[in-house]
Amino acid sequence: MPIKGDKMDIPKMQSFGNYTEQNLNDKVISEDLSRILFYNGSDMIVEFPKWDYKKPGKERETREFGEGFYTSYNDRNYPIYLRSDLDKIILNKYYLNMQGLNILRLKDDLKWLLIIAFHRSSFSRRPKFHRIRDSVRNYVSEFDLIIGTISDDRLFSAVDFFLADASTDFVTIELARMFKLGTQYVSKSNKSDKRFRFAGFEDVSYDEILIQRKLRESHRADMAESVAIKRAELHPIDTGKLFSNLMEEIGGDLDAWLRV
């Protein structure tokens, strides 16, 4: 929930020590991981995250995992990059204790891709996919916290090609790996919200916002071309399948397939 007030003192950052991405994704999560910083970019101070918060009078954005409180792990640049359309950005900082949470850890694979696809699109004009869409969204909603690759405009463009049967799952996943996007941690429940401990905030300078805005604009400008070039490069080794073919194969057993 957003709060208003004067800028507060930001606690001194604690050392990351020897923690790595693998540590975070281990089955057993150490209590000490609550010392690692997570970042959220907003136009307001958010002391108490709320996964289903909706700003009055504003429609929620289409996000890769649906409603949620989105944070990046150990990377302050991506939240600024993703919110660089704003002239004022507040970078909120948190420590996170993940013990006891029901966590979905997604690799860059077909499950991850289909979860993004069925949150990215409502399939309003493709009613035959509505049951599958609802199954995917209900599955994701069972978890407190989602861990997966950050999505940006380039990845969404690649996913749109995939949904239009213009690109295979193999090519889309390889494109995501080429973009080398960071990792995001998304709260999907009140229980998870309470595990984010506010560690202060900073006002991002306008100069820094402009740097990230120009970078994002350059990615948008050559997005279609760059995705097309990468798709062409991957074509000779493409062993993937088109979206419609995949749906025919796994649609009937989707619930079981998701839980493998």
Order of helices and strands: EHEEEHEEHHEHHEHEHHHH
Total helix count?
Answer: 11
Average per-residue pLDDT, rounded, comes to 82
The amount of helix comes to 25-40%
Spans of at least 5 consecutive residues with low confidence: 1-32
Question: Distance N terminus to C terminus?
Answer: 35 Å
Helix/strand class: alpha+beta
General shape = globular
The gyration radius over C-alpha positions equals 19 Å
Beta-strand proportion: 15-25%
The count of DSSP E runs of length 2 or more, i.e. the number of strands, is 9
Strand order of the largest sheet: 6-7-8-4-2-5-9
Instruction: Give the biggest beta sheet.
Output: 7 strands, mixed
Describe this structure in words.
This protein has about 260 residues and is an alpha+beta fold. The protein has a domain at about 20-150 and about 180-215. It contains eleven helices and nine strands. It has a seven-stranded mixed β-sheet. It has a two-stranded antiparallel sheet with strand order 1-3. It starts with a strand and ends with a helix. Mean pLDDT is about 80; it is low at about 1-30.
